[in-house]
Amino acid sequence: MRIAHSVEAARQLVRKHRPDYQLVIYTGILLLFGLIVLYAISPARVETLESSGASIDEAHFMQRQLLYLIAGIIAFFVANLIPLAKWKQFAGKLLIIALILCVLLVFFGAINAPVALCSGGACRWFNLGIGTFQPAELLKFSVLLFLAAFLARRMKQGSINNLHDTLIPLGIITGIAVIFVIGFQKDMGTGLSLIGIIAAMLYLAGINKRMGLIVLSAIVALSIIFIIIAPHRLARVTTFLGQDTSEDAKTSSYHINQAKIALGTGGLFGLGLGRNVQAFGYLPEAPNDSIFAVMGEAFGFVGVVAILLFMTGLLLRLLHILDRTEEHMYRLIIAGVFGWLATHIVLNIGAMVGLIPLTGITLPLLSFGGTSLLFIMLALGLVFNISRYTVHGKIIDDETEKKASSDGRRWVGRARDAAPVGHRRTRSR
To answer: Which residue of 93, 157, 183, 243 is surrounded by the most CB atoms within 10 Å?
Structure first.
């Protein structure tokens, strides 16, 4: 009882203070990199589209990205201004809105309504006239908030590994979200990033090994099913494994081959901005999914390493803030954002260098796009807001102690000289 009172007293001492501006610096540098590269390849992209009969202004992509960037910056500051307690109230409502929008998109796509923008048999965007909106990105953000609140309650109750109280409701929510994204919208990349968010949150929440294996097995099984039932996904996997040598396989491998050419052409120091060759119609989705290959061609190996270092710095900053955050829900939010960004980075870059099959996923803060950038900036703004209420040392959580003692290894934020199970303290920097 005395320990509980001391923990509560410690929480009361956490006062609002200066936020973590290093998070802003890393985010800003990556946004600037993306904007510069997009500016450099815009003429090539416009020329390619005009050769196929389209009429687009040369500044089209740059203007659109500037609008997306402004919207993202506004979202960042809005998330920073909203009191943290309000986000718990918003979580359930946002999830309902996101699911309704996903249902409406499927419906409008089925009746070929102009409001639904479809490509390759997949309806993933609402056509708003002035731009597009992808409800799957809202779904990711709302699932992150809802599960953070849900898992935080279960952690406080000590029932994080309870089958009926936690895992079954979690499975239902996850299953519904994944089915809408992967099944109906045919967006495997977004579905995998959603799984990455949930996995990171469950890991931090302290799910035990047995339950973790059950959840992982279910996810793997579901993923295999979605791959098998979709011919284009199956073709990507078989081509990647080298099991398909047909003409269709050669076509499906074209994207990754051009990405490798772009990266190889860049050499050590790159061709320089505005000298990209692959952007002239050779590399598919140059401003979007393939932006890493474009950067490799422009900046070379040295430039790519610099970009990776800034990305790593951003991820490590998220972990730094997480280690110094008290409240369970806020810790889970940061873990979810970390999983979100890390999944995107690994899947995108892994595909560009030929380590994994293509998933059609963007590179955070660097790729051209509106909705993805908007919600990533909203999530980072929320983390920035949380960083105002951190403590000076690493948090050693009760659940952390239990996890570490049961697994026989250190947990995130656990000091090597940690107190016994049931105690909570902080370690100075």
So the answer is: 183
DSSP three-state, residue 2: helix
pLDDT in tens, the chain (429 residues): 444 444 444 444 467 788 899 999 999 999 998 888 888 777 766 666 666 656 666 667 777 888 889 999 999 999 988 988 888 888 889 999 998 988 888 888 878 888 888 776 677 878 887 778 888 889 899 999 999 999 999 888 888 888 788 888 888 888 888 777 776 777 777 788 888 898 899 889 888 877 777 777 777 777 677 666 665 566 666 665 654 454 444 555 777 778 888 888 888 888 887 777 776 667 777 777 888 888 888 888 998 999 999 999 999 999 999 999 988 999 999 999 999 999 999 988 988 887 877 777 888 998 887 888 999 999 999 999 999 988 876 765 544 444 444 443 334 444 333 333 333 445 444
How far apart, in whole angstroms, are the C-alpha atoms of residue 255 and residue 352? 9
Q: Is 112 helix (H, G, I), strand (E, B) or coil?
A: coil
Q: Sketch the domain layout of the chain as residue ranges.
A: 12-391, 392-429
Q: How far is CA 133 from CA 69, 154, 259, 303, 364, in A?
A: 15, 34, 27, 32, 17
Question: pTM for this structure?
Answer: 0.82
DSSP string, 225-286: HHHHH-HHHHHHHHHHTT---SHHHHHHTHHHHHHHHHHHHHTTT-S-TT--STTTTTSTTT
Cα(289)–Cα(280) distance, rounded to whole angstroms? 15
